[in-house]
Amino acid sequence: MTADVRLATGSTAPGREVLAHNYAPLPVTLHSGDGAWVRDAQGRAYLDFLAGYSALNFGHGHPALLAAAHDQLDRLTLTSRAFDHDLLVPFADAVTALTGTQMLLPMNTGAEAVETAIKVSRKWGYDVRGVAPERATIVVAAGAFHGRTTTIVSFSTDPDARDGFGPYTPGFRVVPYGDADAVAAAIDEHTVAVLLEPIQGESGVVVPPADYLPRVRDVTAAAGVLLVLDEIQSGLGRTGTTLAADRVGVRADLVTLGKALGGGVLPVSAVVGRADVLGVLTPGTHGSTFGGNPLACAVGIAVCRLLEPGDLQARAAELGAVMAARLEEMQRAGLLAAVRTAGLWAGIDVPADAGITGRGLCERLLARGVLAKDTHGATIRLAPPLVVSEADLHTGLDALEDALRA
Ligand SMILES: *Cc1c(COP(=O)(O)O)cnc(C)c1O
Q1: 63-307 has which fold?
Q2: Which among 114, 152, 261 is the best mutation to test ligand 1's pocket, defined by most ligand atoms within 8 Å of the CB?
Q3: What does the alpha-carbon distance between residue 181 and residue 200 come to, in Å, rounded to a whole number?
Q4: Ligand 1 mean position to 269 CA, how many Å?
Q5: Residue 259 CA: which ligand 1 atom is closest?
Q6: Which fold has domain 13-61+313-405?
Q7: I want to staple 208 with a disulfide (CB 3.0 to 4.6 A). Which of 178, 220, 265, 327 is the partner?
Q8: Residues 82/289, Cβ–Cβ less than 8 Å
Q9: How far apart, in whole angstroms, are the C-alpha atoms of residue 296 and residue 299?
């Protein structure tokens, strides 16, 4: 397949006024996908280096995931949690086995999983820790991204995500990311949890110091508060390990999963973790109509089967090393101001004097047949599907180098 394509002009144009303007997509209209490649309506091929913000870790149309979905579509798609179905426990077994956790609560979107973790942490704080009623606080990090609900944007430090959506939910303390002492200083008798991304994805793949999570783990354990890690983007193979926290040997009390858990087929999310913590929920206290539906469970189980052998994680680490070496070479050549990588995941910063924004670079990449997305001005996140071939990875990185030199 060739990456030699022209900019798809006008593809966002006619009729788009009917859509609310909460995204500013690149000018391309996609029609089909296969593995690391997608095609637009005119049949032009593009390498997908965003992979649905890591929801497409297994690429487009993975045969095992499609087979699981097709098979389940014909059998049973929704029961509601008013009735059990035959894949619910197998799904919980598969995800908890994969992540080395004890219990699972199924949801649909990432934001719902984070909301669930917040509710469980608060209830645990009141019921188990004896925190004074209505006083629970959760320590969170500046620059974080945890979703778009009113409670979650209440503690966002991104003005675009937060401004204009108040009144805001109280009960959160924001500290700088990567500073374990700041976490320790923010914990008091009302604190029930510390909620962090092990690597900040939306912020531009910000990798904290290696001792950060281990120290936060020690601090939270000593204080008797929960460590909640949001692995919705970093988890499920992206960083070269099943969970990003595995890289530094840290085990959280609760972990949120999403994005890749749905295999790029449908939204599937979950909170996994300690049984005594998730156990504070009792019937009627929390729920979701679609959470844990048979179709979601079928795809989620198939996702776990793909990750069980560990080959995709190893592949992410190997290809990630290839990608990191090439990006660092571009940085040494002065083409990039900064490079941050973790497995097959990179945040790159365009130099301030390059005369091009992150968006501008993404447009040049599009013209060269590579899809990527800027985040916060000069930063671009690269997250090719873990199934990308090494040759295709180089094709994409060649296009990046060419776009930076243009
Ligand atoms: C994408 C993301 C979310 C929100 O997931 P949605 O499915 O869009 O609600 C939450 N946390 C992190 C770290 C994410 O990357």
Answers
A1: Aspartate Aminotransferase; domain 2 (3.40.640)
A2: 114
A3: 18
A4: 10
A5: 7
A6: Aspartate Aminotransferase, domain 1 (3.90.1150)
A7: 178
A8: no
A9: 5
